[in-house]
Design goal:
5-stranded parallel beta sheet, about 230 residues, globular, about 40% helix, alpha/beta, 8 helices
């Protein structure tokens, strides 16, 4: 059965173009022209992924994403005409999995959709099962349950934040460039958004807390590495 992609976009022509590209790739596309209808359609069609514009009539995209995250962890790709760093920080911070700035290539967006679905299926157990635990100092990670515990305290990480931390912690001491992290976690080949990596790394560090060991270390000019040793 074809996977359903919900497109919540008030630019009708753009929504039609995206739907056509997705349908060529074998997806079923459902569209909604405002946030209120988008939430209704989400309940009705139970999509595998949501393409969500930020600037929407009735209910804006940020509010829609917050509402979706209260009941669902399906991938959400935000679409915006705004290219500012703060807009991306807000979108990723409230649970969006990816952020695309207009104008964009429909083919690139389809590639992002496929990559997000692969990551989601793998993490949810629908695809290849991911297993294992990592214990590093006071940090405990469980990939089966996406649980992160530091010094006995549960750390509330989003799926993407956990995946980045797991990716780095799986190879302690190894330095990864932003490009390697992006391709390893997002799964895109030839598409790199280094700013998203920076935003997520900063959020992970904030959630781990300043009093904890600096698990993710910056290697200037090279990237990041995981280390359980502070300093």
């Amino acid at each position: 059965m074809a996977q359903t992609i919900l497109i919540i976009e008030d630019e009708i022509e753009l929504a039609k173009i995206l739907a056509a590209y997705l349908e060529v790739e074998g997806f079923k596309a459902v569209t909604a022209a405002d946030g209120e209808d988008g939430l209704r359609q989400f309940t009705d069609c139970a999509p595998s992924l949501v393409l969500l514009d930020i600037m929407l009539p009735k209910i804006d995209g940020i509010s829609v994403c917050k509402e979706l995250r209260m009941t669902s962890d399906v991938p959400v790709i935000m679409i915006s005409a705004k290219s500012g760093e703060m807009d991306k920080v807000v979108a990723l911070g409230i649970g969006a999995d990816d952020y695309v700035t207009k104008p964009f290539s429909p083919l690139e967006l389809v590639a992002r959709v496929k990559a997000q679905l692969r990551r989601y299926e793998k993490s949810s157990g629908a695809g290849e099962a991911a297993a294992g635990e990592i214990i590093a100092g006071a940090l405990y990670l469980n990939h089966n349950t996406y649980t992160a515990i530091s010094s006995g305290n549960t750390i509330e990480l989003t799926t993407k934040e956990f995946e980045i931390l797991w990716f780095l912690a799986s190879s302690p001491g190894q330095v990864f460039s932003k490009e390697q992290i992006y391709q390893g976690v997002w799964g895109y080949e030839g598409i790199v958004d280094e700013n998203s990596v920076i935003v997520y790394i900063n959020r992970i560090r904030e959630k781990l807390g300043r009093s904890e060991a600096t698990y993710i270390k910056t290697v200037w000019g090279a990237g990041y590495k995981f280390s359980e040793v502070s300093g």
